[in-house]
Design goal:
mainly alpha
């Protein structure tokens, strides 16, 4: 049976995305074990996570240009090779410094995998089938981060921490074979010149900003280091924005934000991921630190979110063609916000099945938001600009996630201190007053995460379904064109 080419590209793109996103969460549960094995402190071991994050920030911007210049297939093969080799090296690390270095190298490949893979996918699917492509991408987007804590907890608890990196090797090799044999090369006729100034300003600006956000989680937003790097990052990004407006061939074409639909979808994604990531960051702390669950048990409790996304992805893809992105994205964000508020009722005695049910509903809301968002974002972007638009979209997602984690961590820390609670390893057995105060701090953090998600509803209302008509059913597209003609005639 012959497989349609677009589905071969979808397999390749989802493999790259899955590996990239899985690596973002699978390592987190192993950090305490790594610190113990390498006999190092928290400040040093945090760079195992932060180094990967900063490397992603540096190399995402160059992926769009590299794909246009050298070809998306060649660039994807390079990124996947680097990621696989770096994963092997991480498993063989002999001290914490070598592990950090290999994690940075892993970020080089990871930073290029997702944008280039997304570009390949949306070029393979025609505009009218973008919702199908979006539904396929939703699976790794949710399953990978949700599976990370489960798989990582299992491997650390029952095998060894090295296997959190070794699991990437067979998947990477399979992806390389399929890509090399079946994927077609695509280059842009005029990819433009490399923009060293834009690359330097964007890389340093995002790295400084992400470093400040990562440090804010433990130090607080009023810390001098956080303020220094935060202000420097913002200044560099402003300088980057101004410089890119004057460059003929920009590294990141910020002029794409003049496109109304792309601007609205990117804004909605950034705000939505801020709220989503904040609550997802706090929940494992509540389950493991306060309720005393193991990393594996915690992962099993949060995994139903992935089931919810997979359950809703295909129906959402079909509904999208009829009603468009605006109402679907807004509804998904409202559902997600309500689930964050629901966690205010969770305490030490709440059944794990209740928490799993909340996560299942949350997954449905997330999928209802993500499918139309991925389908509509590039609807009015020309094929030659898809690569650079994909880079912007990936950067927006990553910054939203980082910002959400930083806010949640800072709110949780400050509220525990304010309410007189304790960041205990296990609340059971402590005085009831301390248990209550600590739980209230978690509840405050979930409220903030829910409010941030609600802000995403406001951003979603900026989306116009008419702009995305080309990705919907043909009748909707024709009706939109007729409406535009009538409006033009009226003026």
């Amino acid at each position: 049976m012959k497989v349609d080419y677009k589905y071969i590209v979808a397999i390749v793109a989802t493999v790259g995305l899955f590996m990239d996103l899985l690596d973002g969460t699978i390592v987190n549960v192993a950090v305490p074990t790594l610190a113990k094995d390498f006999n190092t402190g928290t400040t040093t071991i945090e760079w195992v996570v932060t180094g990967y994050l900063l490397s992603l920030a540096v190399f995402i911007p160059v992926s769009g240009w590299a794909g246009d210049k050298f070809g998306t297939k060649r660039t994807f093969l390079f990124a996947l090779t680097v990621f696989t080799i770096a994963s092997t090296s991480c498993a063989l690390a002999w001290n914490v410094q070598s592990l950090i270095a290999f994690r940075v190298l892993q970020g080089v490949g990871g930073g290029m995998l997702t944008p280039v893979g997304t570009t390949m996918l949306f070029r393979a699917f025609p505009p009218a089938e973008r919702s199908k492509a979006a539904a396929l991408m939703v699976v790794p987007t949710t399953v990978a981060p949700a599976s990370g804590p489960v798989l990582g907890g299992f491997l650390v608890q029952y095998v060894s921490w090295q296997w959190i990196f070794l699991v990437n090797i067979p998947v990477g090799i399979a992806g390389l074979i399929i890509t090399a044999r079946f994927v077609k090369e695509h280059k842009e006729a005029q990819p433009g010149k490399f923009d060293p100034y834009g690359f330097t300003l964007a890389a340093s600006g995002m790295a400084a900003t992400l470093y400040a956000l990562a440090e804010a989680g433990s130090r607080g937003f009023d810390d001098s280091r956080v303020i220094l790097f935060g202000l420097a990052g913002v200044a560099l990004l402003i300088a980057f924005w101004m410089a890119e407006l004057r460059v003929t061939d920009p590294m990141i074409d910020v002029r794409l934000f003049k496109d109304r639909l792309f601007r609205a979808c990117s804004t909605a994604q950034f705000v939505a991921m801020t709220g989503f990531s904040g609550s997802l960051f706090v929940l494992p702390f509540l389950l493991q630190r306060e309720r005393g669950l193991s990393a594996f048990e915690s992962g099993l409790t949060t995994f139903p979110m992935a089931i919810g996304v997979m359950f809703i992805a295909q129906p959402a893809s079909r509904v999208y063609r009829v009603i468009g992105p605006k109402r679907m994205i807004a509804t998904g964000l409202i559902i997600a916000s309500l689930t964050s508020f629901t966690f205010v009722r969770v305490d030490l005695e709440t059944s794990q099945w209740t928490i799993r049910a909340i996560m299942l509903v949350r997954g449905c809301g997330f999928g209802l938001m993500l499918v139309p968002l991925q389908a509509a974002t590039f609807a009015t972007i020309s094929p030659k600009d898809t690569g650079r638009a994909s880079s912007i979209y990936s950067v927006s997602r990553m910054l939203g996630q980082s910002f959400g984690v930083a806010i949640a961590a800072t709110v949780l820390t400050s509220r525990i201190s304010h309410r007189g609670g304790v960041p205990a390893a296990h609340l059971r057995g402590l005085p009831e007053a301390i248990q209550h105060s600590t739980l209230l701090a978690y509840h405050d953090t979930f409220v903030v995460a829910g409010l941030l998600t609600l802000v995403g509803v406001v951003a979603a209302m900026l989306i116009r379904d008419r702009d995305a008509a080309g990705t919907m059913r043909p009748k909707a597209h024709a009706a939109a064109r007729e409406d535009d003609a009538i409006a033009a005639a009226a003026h």
